[in-house]
Amino acid sequence: MIEGIIVQTLVKGSVYALLALGFALIFGVARVLQLSHTSFYMLAAFGLFTLTDVAFLGGIPFISNPWVAIVLSIIVTTAIGLAVYKLFIDRVREHHVTVMLITLAVAMAFQQIMIIIFSGQYRSAPSFVSGQSWDILGIKVAVQNVLVFGGAGIVMLIIWAILQKTRLGIAIRATAQDTEIANLMGINVSTVLLLVMGIAAALAAIAGVLVAPTMVLEPGMLWPPFVMVMAIITLGGLGSIKGSVIGAFIIALVETLVVFLLPTGAFLKGAFALLVMIVVLIFRPEGLFGIVFEEERL
Amino acid sequence: MLSRLLKDFQGDVVSIPGRLIALIFFVLLFLFPAFTQQSYILRMLIFTNMFVIFAVSWDFISGYTGQMNFGHALFFGVAAYVTAMLNRPAPLGMGWPIAVTIPLGALAAVVAGVLMCLPALRLRGPYLALVTLAFPLILLGVIFSFTQFTGGELGISGIDRMTDSRVADYYISLGVMLVSVLIMWKLTDAQSSFVRTGIIMHAIREDEIAARASGINTIGYKLFAFAVGGFFAGLAGAMYAHFLRIAGPSSLDLTLSFQAIIWTVFGGIVSIYGAVVGTYILYPLTESLRFISEYRLLIFAVIVILILLFMPEGIAVWVRDKIERQCPRCKLTNVSWRHACRACGADLY
User: Fold this and answer.
1) Would you call A88 and B305 a contact, using CB atoms and an 8 Å cutoff?
2) Is B127 within 8 Å of chain A by CB?
3) Hey, are the CB atoms on A230 and B309 less than 8 Å from each other?
4) Which of B261, B298, B300 to mutate to test the interface with A (most CBs of A within 10 A)?
5) Is any Cβ of chain B less than 8 angstroms from the Cβ of A294?
6) In this complex, do A88 and B309 lie within 8 Å of one another by their Cβ atoms?
């Protein structure tokens, strides 16, 4: 049981970390809550399903090489994310509530479009490593789970390297610190915002294609992680990269413990995760690693 | 006396187009059962009336004090479940009459509002939005895990109906809606000389620190806003449960919270009538699109996106600005096609 809890926490935590990382990047740089974020996760999972499923396009899979399918669905999802930013978010970026409502409407629209195309049935994406499992320190772990954890870890390392070592990363961090000063220093803020949006959408898409083979696909699948990502980024502190990764693993641990230890845990996991978030916020109103700006202080 | 009243009516209602439209609209609503008594249409309007209270109470909390409440369905759902549990027959419930259980349900929503306030008072902006989002979801988890009391997915059914006739139901819902909206409208009236809450709530939204520095107990007023808004949202939820004769988990759903926000923003936030207009346009519209149910939510989402992009202050406010103009000298509202103010004769252009 304890092995199960550890494996589940690591797998779920790394998926949540990928989602929350993108969300935190967008909030940190653009100061908006992009609520359609997890719909890119759903879109990428469905993209993988469409490209690789044998039955959907009558007999032959659209693309037989799984890696090509994965890369293609990540690219398409990222392009959709950029289009959403350009069309809807960029024009109303200054009005926070408007951004929240509009991105929520976008998420609803994506869900409905997918229901119209895929008719809301439960589907599953093929796994390239299905059924195989490895022994790691005496624990049997499905290879897909190793893939999720390892893939997420590598992607997070790449993001960290981009943020810390490249000129783009410096520009992103400068914009997050102070948009106006960054603009004065010659950083093209709107390009930085567009790139951050692209990175975030790509992160959500990577999370989507990584977990797609392990779960049931249906257009409503964007809501459970939506709630969890909200809890994670609030817990970790809005806009904090470190906070979102650590918060993801805390929330994943709480969720897994509740599922394993309580009889009705499957229903209560969300409730407990949100309760942890509220308790933390009562004692630290800015989250674990959040920064309080002087003008935003109450 | 009567002529004075008539004169007031002429000056304050007939000559302001927005108020005249509102008056005609409510008179038509009162006469509506004379035109048709079709059960389906009356039922739709009853639900619309309930959702009007719900949306207006969201505007009262979040629009006026600026405390973004993304879990408004909490009040609706708590009241629905409390009244259903007290009303259903003996082995599981108490079997009390609805005249007792509906007010108790609304009071339970007030308690929920105050409890929600406790963490919310320290938070602001997006943090507050996300924490309020969490509360109904926590309750939903509890409801799904104690199915013997709450009915789980199916909800609590078999509770009393409001009255035996649809028309009586309609008039009750209309009356309660009118009174609730009137009370909230008066409480938020910033120019009123009787209540101070309106101008104080505006002050808290615009600059909380400045409001506190001027000696306003901002925490007390925020609690007040959550309690009053919670009461009316709870009233709507409890009555809705009895009209529908079921209290189900959908009354705590995320989509219900967001619908209140979308109705209000569509009509125009921080204006009580905006929420009324938004609900009366959007709810019947989305209901009557049921025959193409697949596209219903998609159309809803597209309308919301278009309105937010091109009419961000809301449709009711947009229309009002087109037909009314304030006199620059005496601040009296005029019809926009007048060239001179009706009272002081100042040039309106």
Assistant:
1) yes
2) yes
3) no
4) B298
5) no
6) yes
Shortest CB distance from B145 goes to which of A234, A264, A298?
A264
Whether the per-residue pLDDT at A73 is higher than 50: the answer is yes
d(CA B92, CA B23): 45
Burial of A275 (0-12, 13-18, 19+ CB in 10 A): middle
Which residue of A92, A96, A227 is in closest CB contact with B308? A92
Does the CB of B103 have a partner CB in chain A at under 8 Å? Answer: no
DSSP structure class, residue A125? P
Q: Which residues does residue B325 pair with via DSSP β-bridges, in sequence order? A: B334
Best residue of B70, B72, B74, B145 to probe chain A, by most A CBs closer than 10 Å = B145
A278 contacts in B (CB within 8 Å)? 119, 131, 134
Asked if residue A178 lies in contact with residue A192, where contact means CB atoms within 8 angstroms, the answer is no
Q: Report which residue type is found at A128.
A: F
Nearest partner of B73 among B241, B204, B251, B300, judged by Cα:
B251
Residue B247 DSSP class? E
CA–CA distance, A47 with A63 (Å, rounded to integer): 11
Residues in A 189-218 with any Cβ partner in B closer than 8 A: none
Question: ipTM of this complex > 0.90?
Answer: no
Q: pLDDT tens, A196-220? A: 999 999 999 999 988 888 888 888 8
* Cβ contact B68–A286 (<8 Å): no
Predicted local distance difference test score (pLDDT) of residue A294: 45
Would you state the structure tokens that stand for residue B115, as one six-digit string? 């409890």
Interval A218-276: pLDDT, tens: 888 888 888 888 888 888 887 788 888 999 999 999 988 888 887 777 778 888 888 88
Residue ranges for chain B with pLDDT beneath 50: none
The reported pLDDT for the residue numbered A63 is 65
Residues of B in contact with A115 (CB under 8 A): 294
Confidence (pTM): 0.86
pLDDT per position as a tens digit, B91-132: 777 788 888 889 999 999 999 988 888 777 777 777 788 888
Contact check, Cβ <8 Å, A96/B126: yes
Of A106, A111, A267, the CB nearest to B305: A106
- Give the whole-angstrom CA distance, residue B201 versus residue B225: 8
A26 touches chain B (CB under 8 A): no
Give backbone dihedrals phi and psi of B30, rounded to 5 degrees, phi first.
-70, -35
pLDDT digits (tens, 9 = 90+) for B311-345: 878 888 888 888 888 888 877 777 877 788 877 87
Name the residue type at position B302.
V
Residue B259's pLDDT is 86
Q: Supply the pLDDT for residue A59.
A: 54
d(CA B298, CA B13): 39
- Residue of chain A whose Cα is closest to the Cα of B137: A271
The pLDDT score that the predictor gives to residue A62 is: 63
Asked whether A119 and A137 are in contact (CB, 8 A), the reply is no
- Closest-CA distance, A284 to chain B, in angstroms, reads 9
The SS3 assignment for A191 reads helix
Q: Using alpha carbons, list the distances in angstroms from residue A88 to A100, A222, B329.
A: 11, 20, 40
Residue ranges and CATH numbers for the domains of chain A are: 2-296 (1.10.3470)
Are B75 and B112 a contacting pair, CB within 8 Å? Answer: yes
What is the CB neighbour count within 10 angstroms for residue A160? 15
Chain A to chain B Cβ contacts (< 8 Å): 125
Contact between chains at A274 and B140 (C-beta distance less than 8 A): no
Strands B156-157 and B246-247: antiparallel
What count of other Cβ atoms lies within 10 Å of the Cβ of residue A290?
Answer: 20
